[in-house]
Design brief:
Residues 1-43 form the HTH asnC-type domain. InterPro entries: AsnC-type_HTH_dom (IPR000485), Dimeric_a/b-barrel (IPR011008), Tscrpt_reg_AsnC-like (IPR019888), Tscrpt_reg_AsnC/Lrp_C (IPR019887). By secondary structure, this protein is an alpha+beta fold. Helices cover 37% and strands 22% of the residues. The chain has helices spanning 2-8, 12-24, 57-65, 91-102, 125-133, and strands at 44-52, 70-75, 82-88, 107-114. Strand 2 and strand 3 form a beta hairpin. Helix 1 (2-8) packs across helix 2 (12-24). The longest helix has 13 residues, at 12-24. The two termini are 26 Å apart.
């Protein structure tokens, strides 16, 4: 808080109050570290589009949440029903992860794409700056 206060040239209490409001509104969800899966030994990233059986969404979500290599899950429109970001130790290990992901009765089909490069990693600051200008 002191560093933010110094950089913004406002009182520490003002910084704290603003952060509290942003957290209460859900704009800021946390202050945790950014962990690189590659540094943990998981350099392969892939995206799997899953088609699921009708009425199986809740169970499939629970299954996918139990797989540590599943980093994100989004329900989507289009060809599939869910988009999953997964990581693996190697291309060979990716097969193991995919097998674990699809080893569930509610998943009908999966299509996987391996990410080759991440030239624009996850970022939020440009969006925040734009929103502040609007």
């Amino acid at each position: 808080m002191l560093e933010c206060s110094r950089r913004l040239q406002v009182a520490r209490g003002t910084v704290q109050a603003r952060l509290d409001r942003l957290q209460a509104r859900g704009v800021i969800g946390g202050f945790g570290p950014q962990v690189d899966p590659a540094a943990l030994g998981y350099p392969v990233t892939a995206f799997a589009t899953l088609e699921i059986s009708q009425g199986q969404g809740v169970d499939v979500r629970a299954h996918l949440a139990s797989v540590p290599e599943v980093l994100e899950l989004h329900t989507i429109t289009g060809q599939g029903d869910m988009l999953v970001r997964i990581v693996a130790r190697s291309n060979g290990d990716l097969q193991r992860v995919i097998d674990r992901v699809v080893d569930f009765e509610g998943i009908v089909r999966a299509s996987t794409a391996i990410a080759l490069e991440n030239p624009v990693p996850y970022r939020i600051l440009p969006l925040v700056e734009q929103a502040a200008r609007e």
